[in-house]
Amino acid sequence: MSFPSSKGGFNSRSPLHVIYNKLVFMVFEKKFKTRRVTELGKKNLRVLKKDMEKYKVLAKELGSDDAVIIPAKAVKFDERVRLKCRVPMCHLYGSSPNCPPNTPDVETMKKTMKKYRWALLVKYDVPCMDDFVDKEKWLKGHEKHQRKIHDIISALESIAFNDGYYFAVGFSAGGCKTALCSGMVCQFLDSGRCRFPLKSRPSMEGVGIDAYDLAAKAGWEIYPVASRYSETGSIRCAVSMGILFIN
Ligand code: SF4
Protein backbone atom coordinates (compact mmCIF):
# COMPACT_ATOMS: atom_id res chain seq x y z
CA MET A 1 0.00 0.00 0.00
CA SER A 2 1.31 3.47 -0.79
CA PHE A 3 -0.05 6.96 -0.25
CA PRO A 4 -0.09 9.72 -2.84
CA SER A 5 2.48 12.35 -1.87
CA SER A 6 1.60 16.01 -2.25
CA LYS A 7 4.00 18.27 -4.07
CA GLY A 8 4.90 21.93 -3.86
CA GLY A 9 4.75 24.31 -0.90
CA PHE A 10 7.60 26.26 0.57
CA ASN A 11 11.00 24.73 1.03
CA SER A 12 12.50 25.85 4.33
CA ARG A 13 15.96 25.78 2.74
CA SER A 14 15.14 28.21 -0.05
CA PRO A 15 16.74 31.69 -0.10
CA LEU A 16 13.27 33.07 0.70
CA HIS A 17 13.23 31.38 4.10
CA VAL A 18 13.15 34.67 6.08
CA ILE A 19 9.91 35.74 4.39
CA TYR A 20 8.74 32.17 4.67
CA ASN A 21 9.30 32.11 8.45
CA LYS A 22 7.31 35.32 8.81
CA LEU A 23 4.44 33.79 6.83
CA VAL A 24 4.56 30.68 9.02
CA PHE A 25 4.44 32.86 12.13
CA MET A 26 1.37 34.66 10.75
CA VAL A 27 -0.45 31.33 10.25
CA PHE A 28 0.28 30.38 13.87
CA GLU A 29 -1.27 33.71 14.90
CA LYS A 30 -4.31 33.35 12.61
CA LYS A 31 -7.81 32.92 14.08
CA PHE A 32 -10.43 30.54 12.68
CA LYS A 33 -14.19 30.37 13.12
CA THR A 34 -15.30 27.82 15.71
CA ARG A 35 -18.16 25.65 14.44
CA ARG A 36 -21.21 24.47 16.30
CA VAL A 37 -20.84 20.80 17.23
CA THR A 38 -22.92 18.33 15.24
CA GLU A 39 -23.09 14.55 15.65
CA LEU A 40 -19.76 13.14 14.46
CA GLY A 41 -21.42 10.10 12.87
CA LYS A 42 -23.60 12.38 10.76
CA LYS A 43 -20.76 14.50 9.43
CA ASN A 44 -21.14 14.79 5.73
CA LEU A 45 -18.30 12.92 3.97
CA ARG A 46 -17.88 15.80 1.53
CA VAL A 47 -17.34 18.27 4.41
CA LEU A 48 -14.95 15.88 6.12
CA LYS A 49 -12.86 15.48 2.95
CA LYS A 50 -12.82 19.23 2.44
CA ASP A 51 -11.67 19.74 6.03
CA MET A 52 -8.91 17.15 5.64
CA GLU A 53 -7.70 19.02 2.54
CA LYS A 54 -7.80 22.24 4.58
CA TYR A 55 -5.61 20.68 7.31
CA LYS A 56 -3.20 19.45 4.67
CA VAL A 57 -2.82 22.97 3.25
CA LEU A 58 -2.50 24.39 6.77
CA ALA A 59 0.19 21.84 7.66
CA LYS A 60 2.27 23.25 4.82
CA GLU A 61 1.53 26.84 5.76
CA LEU A 62 2.62 26.03 9.31
CA GLY A 63 6.00 24.90 8.05
CA SER A 64 5.81 21.24 7.07
CA ASP A 65 7.38 20.08 3.81
CA ASP A 66 4.76 17.49 2.94
CA ALA A 67 1.49 16.09 4.28
CA VAL A 68 -0.68 13.19 3.13
CA ILE A 69 -4.22 12.19 4.01
CA ILE A 70 -4.42 8.50 4.82
CA PRO A 71 -7.07 6.09 6.13
CA ALA A 72 -6.52 5.69 9.88
CA LYS A 73 -6.51 1.91 9.49
CA ALA A 74 -3.27 2.18 7.47
CA VAL A 75 -1.42 3.13 10.66
CA LYS A 76 0.29 0.08 12.22
CA PHE A 77 0.74 -0.13 15.98
CA ASP A 78 3.48 -2.57 16.86
CA GLU A 79 4.80 -3.70 20.25
CA ARG A 80 8.31 -3.82 18.77
CA VAL A 81 8.30 -0.03 18.33
CA ARG A 82 7.96 0.48 22.07
CA LEU A 83 10.45 -2.28 22.74
CA LYS A 84 12.96 -0.17 20.79
CA CYS A 85 12.43 2.67 23.31
CA ARG A 86 13.68 0.27 26.00
CA VAL A 87 16.28 -1.82 24.18
CA PRO A 88 18.71 -0.20 23.84
CA MET A 89 17.54 2.26 26.50
CA CYS A 90 16.54 5.65 25.06
CA HIS A 91 17.98 8.54 27.08
CA LEU A 92 14.39 9.85 27.45
CA TYR A 93 12.83 6.59 28.67
CA GLY A 94 10.48 7.44 31.57
CA SER A 95 11.60 11.09 31.53
CA SER A 96 8.09 12.55 31.16
CA PRO A 97 4.45 11.40 31.02
CA ASN A 98 4.80 11.41 27.23
CA CYS A 99 7.52 8.75 26.95
CA PRO A 100 7.25 5.00 27.59
CA PRO A 101 6.60 3.34 29.95
CA ASN A 102 4.19 6.19 30.84
CA THR A 103 2.35 6.35 27.49
CA PRO A 104 -0.75 4.29 26.64
CA ASP A 105 0.25 0.69 25.86
CA VAL A 106 0.04 -0.71 22.34
CA GLU A 107 -3.07 -2.82 23.04
CA THR A 108 -4.95 0.26 24.28
CA MET A 109 -3.79 2.24 21.25
CA LYS A 110 -4.86 -0.49 18.80
CA LYS A 111 -8.30 -0.70 20.40
CA THR A 112 -8.78 3.07 20.68
CA MET A 113 -7.43 4.21 17.33
CA LYS A 114 -9.68 1.75 15.47
CA LYS A 115 -12.42 4.27 16.09
CA TYR A 116 -10.78 6.92 13.91
CA ARG A 117 -11.38 7.04 10.18
CA TRP A 118 -8.79 9.47 8.79
CA ALA A 119 -5.33 10.74 9.56
CA LEU A 120 -3.00 13.41 8.26
CA LEU A 121 0.64 12.38 8.16
CA VAL A 122 3.00 15.36 8.28
CA LYS A 123 6.69 15.57 7.44
CA TYR A 124 9.32 18.22 8.09
CA ASP A 125 12.66 17.98 6.27
CA VAL A 126 15.45 18.76 8.71
CA PRO A 127 17.50 21.50 6.99
CA CYS A 128 20.79 20.67 8.73
CA MET A 129 21.25 16.91 8.69
CA ASP A 130 24.08 17.07 11.26
CA ASP A 131 21.46 18.10 13.84
CA PHE A 132 20.26 14.49 13.67
CA VAL A 133 23.27 12.59 12.43
CA ASP A 134 26.40 14.09 14.00
CA LYS A 135 27.32 12.15 17.17
CA GLU A 136 28.38 15.35 19.00
CA LYS A 137 25.73 17.78 17.77
CA TRP A 138 22.56 15.66 17.71
CA LEU A 139 21.71 15.89 21.42
CA LYS A 140 21.00 19.63 21.31
CA GLY A 141 20.64 19.86 17.54
CA HIS A 142 17.53 17.73 17.12
CA GLU A 143 15.42 19.59 19.72
CA LYS A 144 14.29 22.50 17.52
CA HIS A 145 13.23 20.21 14.69
CA GLN A 146 11.11 18.01 16.92
CA ARG A 147 9.68 21.16 18.55
CA LYS A 148 8.57 22.24 15.09
CA ILE A 149 6.49 19.08 14.71
CA HIS A 150 5.02 19.60 18.20
CA ASP A 151 4.05 23.15 17.10
CA ILE A 152 2.47 22.03 13.83
CA ILE A 153 0.57 19.03 15.21
CA SER A 154 -0.76 20.85 18.29
CA ALA A 155 -1.96 23.76 16.10
CA LEU A 156 -3.70 21.39 13.67
CA GLU A 157 -5.28 19.46 16.53
CA SER A 158 -6.72 22.67 18.03
CA ILE A 159 -8.07 23.88 14.68
CA ALA A 160 -9.73 20.50 13.99
CA PHE A 161 -11.15 20.46 17.52
CA ASN A 162 -12.71 23.90 16.93
CA ASP A 163 -14.14 22.61 13.64
CA GLY A 164 -16.20 20.15 15.67
CA TYR A 165 -13.85 17.12 15.45
CA TYR A 166 -13.70 16.97 19.21
CA PHE A 167 -11.82 13.65 19.25
CA ALA A 168 -9.02 15.02 17.04
CA VAL A 169 -5.71 13.83 18.48
CA GLY A 170 -2.15 14.26 17.32
CA PHE A 171 1.17 12.59 17.99
CA SER A 172 4.50 14.21 17.51
CA ALA A 173 8.21 13.35 17.20
CA GLY A 174 10.73 12.73 19.99
CA GLY A 175 10.34 13.34 23.69
CA CYS A 176 8.82 16.57 25.02
CA LYS A 177 11.53 16.75 27.70
CA THR A 178 14.04 17.74 25.01
CA ALA A 179 11.74 19.03 22.24
CA LEU A 180 9.85 21.46 24.51
CA CYS A 181 11.67 21.68 27.83
CA SER A 182 15.25 21.69 26.42
CA GLY A 183 16.32 18.91 28.78
CA MET A 184 15.15 20.56 32.01
CA VAL A 185 13.56 18.40 34.72
CA CYS A 186 10.01 17.45 33.72
CA GLN A 187 7.83 19.80 35.73
CA PHE A 188 4.83 17.49 35.38
CA LEU A 189 6.65 14.60 37.08
CA ASP A 190 8.09 17.04 39.60
CA SER A 191 5.00 19.04 40.59
CA GLY A 192 2.11 17.94 38.38
CA ARG A 193 2.18 21.10 36.25
CA CYS A 194 3.39 20.69 32.68
CA ARG A 195 5.11 23.76 31.18
CA PHE A 196 3.33 23.17 27.85
CA PRO A 197 0.03 21.50 28.71
CA LEU A 198 -1.62 21.78 25.28
CA LYS A 199 1.48 21.29 23.21
CA SER A 200 3.16 18.37 24.95
CA ARG A 201 2.15 14.93 23.71
CA PRO A 202 3.67 11.53 23.02
CA SER A 203 5.65 10.93 19.88
CA MET A 204 4.34 8.56 17.22
CA GLU A 205 6.92 5.97 18.28
CA GLY A 206 6.09 6.49 21.98
CA VAL A 207 2.61 5.01 21.39
CA GLY A 208 3.85 2.21 19.14
CA ILE A 209 3.19 3.71 15.68
CA ASP A 210 5.47 2.26 13.01
CA ALA A 211 6.52 5.64 11.58
CA TYR A 212 9.13 4.16 9.21
CA ASP A 213 6.42 2.05 7.60
CA LEU A 214 4.20 5.10 7.08
CA ALA A 215 7.05 7.16 5.63
CA ALA A 216 7.92 4.34 3.21
CA LYS A 217 4.27 4.05 2.14
CA ALA A 218 4.13 7.82 1.59
CA GLY A 219 7.17 7.52 -0.67
CA TRP A 220 9.26 9.69 1.65
CA GLU A 221 13.00 9.18 1.86
CA ILE A 222 13.87 8.14 5.39
CA TYR A 223 16.93 6.54 6.99
CA PRO A 224 17.62 4.94 10.35
CA VAL A 225 20.18 7.15 12.08
CA ALA A 226 22.72 5.00 13.91
CA SER A 227 25.51 7.08 12.42
CA ARG A 228 28.39 5.44 14.29
CA TYR A 229 28.35 2.51 11.87
CA SER A 230 27.12 4.39 8.80
CA GLU A 231 29.34 5.00 5.85
CA THR A 232 29.78 8.75 5.34
CA GLY A 233 27.22 10.07 2.90
CA SER A 234 24.94 7.03 3.00
CA ILE A 235 22.37 8.86 5.18
CA ARG A 236 21.08 11.39 2.66
CA CYS A 237 18.45 13.23 4.67
CA ALA A 238 16.78 13.50 8.07
CA VAL A 239 13.07 14.01 8.66
CA SER A 240 10.77 14.67 11.57
CA MET A 241 7.18 13.40 11.41
CA GLY A 242 3.86 13.75 13.18
CA ILE A 243 0.27 12.56 12.71
CA LEU A 244 -3.21 13.91 13.37
CA PHE A 245 -6.17 11.52 13.70
CA ILE A 246 -9.67 12.80 12.92
CA ASN A 247 -13.18 11.53 13.52
S1 SF4 B 1 6.93 19.68 31.75
FE1 SF4 B 1 8.11 19.49 29.84
S2 SF4 B 1 8.93 17.40 29.91
FE2 SF4 B 1 7.25 17.48 31.40
S3 SF4 B 1 5.41 16.80 30.27
FE3 SF4 B 1 5.49 19.04 30.13
S4 SF4 B 1 6.57 19.46 28.20
FE4 SF4 B 1 6.99 17.33 28.76
How would you sum up this structure, described in words?
This protein is α+β, with helices and mostly antiparallel strands and 247 residues long. The chain has one domain. It has ten helices and four strands. It has helices at residues 17-29, 45-61, 79-86, 106-113, 130-133, 138-141, 143-162, 176-179, 187-191, 211-218, and strands at 66-71, 118-125, 169-171, 239-246. It has a four-stranded antiparallel sheet with strand order 1-2-4-3, with helices on both faces. The two termini are 22 Å apart. The structure holds iron/sulfur cluster (SF4). Iron/sulfur cluster is lined by residues 96-98, 176-177, 180-181, 186-188, 194-196, 200. Iron/sulfur cluster (SF4) is lined by residues 96-98, 176-177, 180-181, 186-188, 194-196, 200.
